[in-house]
What does this fold into?
Amino acid sequence: TRTTTTTTTRMMMSAMTPKSVAGTSVGARAHHAAPDEGLRGRARRSGTTTRRVVQPRAQAVSQEYAMNENGVLMPTGKYCVNHAETVRRKTRTVNVGNVKIGSEHPIVKQTMTTSDTRDVAKTVAEVIRCADAGAEMVRITVQGMQEAKACVEIKNTLVAKGYNTPLIADIHFAPKVALLVAECFDKIRVNPGNFADGRKKFENILYETDEEYEAELAEIEEVFTPLVLKCKERGVAMRIGTNHGSLSARTLSRFGDTPMGMVESAFEFARICRKHDYHNFVFSMKASNPLVMVQAYRLLSHEMYKIGWDYPLHLGVTEAGEGEDGRMKSSIGIGALLLDGLGDTIRVSLTEASELEIEPCTRLANLGMKACAENIGVKGGFEETVRDFKSFTRRTGDLPVQKADDAIDFRNILHRDGSVLTAVSTKELASEDPFYRSLGAKLAVGMPLRDIATSDSILLSEVPAASEEKALRSIRRLQEIGVGIVVPAAVLKTTPLANSIALVTVDEIGAPLPGGAARMAVTLDGTETAAQIKAVAASDAVMVLIKTASSESRLHSSRRLAEEMAKAGAKVPVIHHMFMAAGDKSDIVIQSGSQVGGLLVDGFGDGVLIQYTGSDAAVTTDFLRTTSFGLLQGSRMRNTKTEYVSCPSCGRTLFDLQEVTAQIQEKTGHLPGVAIAVMGCIVNGPGEMADADFGYVGGAPGKIDLYVGKEVVKKGIPSEEATEALIELIKENDRWVEKEVEEVSA
It folds into this structure.
């Protein structure tokens, strides 16, 4: 029996997903959402008065649900070849110069220059650095006629130097410029949200009838068609690249700033291409929020399956930032999709030199190609009844409760927003102060105190001997501040530890706990049967640690466990135990972001433990802890530091983005729960900062505009005064706290 629903699910950071009603297009139903949900995208725009859209559009993308045999409402259709196995989605081949994009070819790596395009020599040198680093395509911003004319010289100079790397023109607001640069470049990127908005108005227009809506779509077709015909004539490729933060006012009026709006925005342009029998294009659905990005790409792929389209996908998390945080966000979003078999070309957008993007880009591309080549997954498959790829819900486990006879407090061994466990050695325990600091604890008179990013529990592979007084004292002090001590049951049988948490196998459930153990945790490897998961559900375990067997795919086997746990009614918290015996820091970020992050963006998981036994001395306990917290924050779970939405810079940037971002981070990095956007320009509109509380945006050379949400509140501030002005703005909005001075050990 076919069933439909009108429920609108609110996704993190306003990425809600309205569902279809009895065959009606979802856009027409979006106005039924509550003001703080379905209309949130519009309400945050300055001066907006929200009204209802009264007419449906026949061509709008739809979401239909059906009742399965178990009585569970699930989305119809699919978004990938196989949810239980990594199989690359079949696509047509798109030709970009001498590079081919599509499922029959390796994943293509690309980046974007940061130089002023008018500086031909500087741009050429940057493209060469990128190509030498491994970039297979390079995008260049082309904002006006001067830049377009420079592109001819850039292309010719590169060819003369023996570089045939395909060049991509990044176009916003400038259809005439796109026509000119299509004469010399290999690919044109257009943003459906602003391609036809030549005046850069960013207005909030309310479309109350289908006639008004369709009239503007006809205008877009008139403006866009000449570029389509030009690209078709010359064999130039195109990317229809939607950004979550820059949807048009027309799209926002019907869909809000949602993944569905992103898909429909791109489809409008694709239909024009197809009308003229032009098919040499790819799609992208970028967002700075990995959860929104993943959902948008999945929805895009799903809609293409429904209508038989096979265009390749360009993957990317936009404005990811810099350093490990930027790499982690990109790994979560891009990696999750690659492990689903989606993605044919990728860019890792970092606020760093453009050539530095290629190293993490290559690691992710290799991860995706290897997973597809090996078809990693759960052989034989399994049915999904709990994971809805069209809307976001998070499974939450029951936190530990205190018992009357407990000698210590066990209520804080896990955190409600996501837990971090850290594996430590007895040698580290004995170092005391350095050890406490590596766990993120504060020190007061030599005693550890919990801080915002202190590990919630630790995992010991052995118990210190009675003679190791310092190590045992560290354990007691941690227990006093509520940090859990998890030890394998087999170890506790020979070396008991008071108030410990015994880590048992499934087969050990029901056996008496070893001496000294006050709680039990269970380790799983992803191969457990339904009966074994029922035993876990019936136990009084305070957590399960999924340490995936080497023969299994973490993503797919954990999805299967999620199904079994839901069927068994298991409410025990799930900790993803990522064990790595080799690799470097980058490997740890890429692998944990892709594999664990790919599960967290589906709402499955209550925490993470990254354990490393390799030989790289740079991989410290402190690094593993901060990486774990970064993984949780990137997955929109637990905020332990300031969140930065920082663009990767391009030729439009009006200040030194890397230098300014570093300055702002130095002064504001201690504000957990606060999100700050640092944008080189406002090319994509205020919506580009959809995830930010405050914005620092280049308004003109040497001038900065400051935003609260999407609304500009201070304009034209001299750049040398702007950082302090931002701090004052944060204070005015009661989001500032003074940075604590840490105690220095003697």
